[in-house]
Amino acid sequence: MSAVTIPARQASGGVNVKVINRIVIYGLLALFALFYLMPLFVMLVTSFKTMDEIQNGNMLALPRAPTFDPWLKAWGETCVGLTCAGIKGYFWNSIKMVVPAVLISTMLGALNGYVLTKWRFRGATLVFGLMLFACFIPFQSVLLPMATILGSLGRFGVTLQNATGTSFGLGNPTVNL
User: Fold this and answer.
1) What is the DSSP letter of 83?
2) Which pLDDT score, from 0 to 100, does residue 168 have?
């Protein structure tokens, strides 16, 4: 007779406990992901419904006759602020602001990361500590003084200066410190 050994991590039914744990973990993660993404789903589904369908229907129901009219109305004729010209002007203004800001911040962040990891200089630990501290400064606390200074100097609303975020060192504290 030969002896057969059963692995210690195997249940009596022959199913591996590790596999069951993985199934439970991935099931919970999928459930949390669905819960987290539900507002996005509701927003997108509702944006393709007519106003009557929104008022009379179920919030989670798919549109009976999907329409792009709300998107076209928002883009071209919705009243935003004092004008009724839609959001297209604001959208392109955002693109003009975001693209240079992301490119410049990425470039400066990469240079900072390279310098702090490859070059050892006196005070490198202090500089790293200051940058780490600056990560915890809420940007809203920097926004009001920056707007006040720019307004008093007559520089408020200059696209390139605002897009770079380097107005007098008051842009992104993480990059500037």
Assistant:
1) B
2) 46
